[in-house]
Write a structure and sequence with these properties.
By secondary structure, the chain is α+β, with helices and mostly antiparallel strands. It has one domain: Alpha-Beta Plaits, CATH 3.30.70. The chain is about 30% helix and about 20% strand. The protein has two helices and three strands, in the order αββαβ. The longest helix has 13 residues.
Length: about 80
């Protein structure tokens, strides 16, 4: 992914969302995000578009109760 993790982190932080983003071995990206529903929907919208030069094939979303364990939005390396 072309700067996708950084893109998601910047968008999430600007929306007041906490969580993580990381590359997975199959070349997909996993995002775990907590925040207000409206902010999460905006983040999903941004992820569907992706950053300049990226090609987003699919965004799968699973909703669950927040854990409250995140304080910031971080990239997992």
């Amino acid at each position: 992914m072309v700067m996708f993790r950084d893109f998601v982190q910047r968008k999430a932080r600007s929306l007041g969302i906490s969580g993580t983003v990381e590359n997975l071995p199959d070349r997909s990206v996993e995002v775990v995000a907590e925040g207000e529903e409206d902010a999460l929907l905006k983040l999903i919208e941004h992820m569907n578009k992706g950053p300049f030069l990226a090609r987003v094939l699919r965004v799968a979303v699973t909703w669950q109760e927040p854990s409250g364990t995140f304080r910031d939005f971080k990239i997992i390396y």
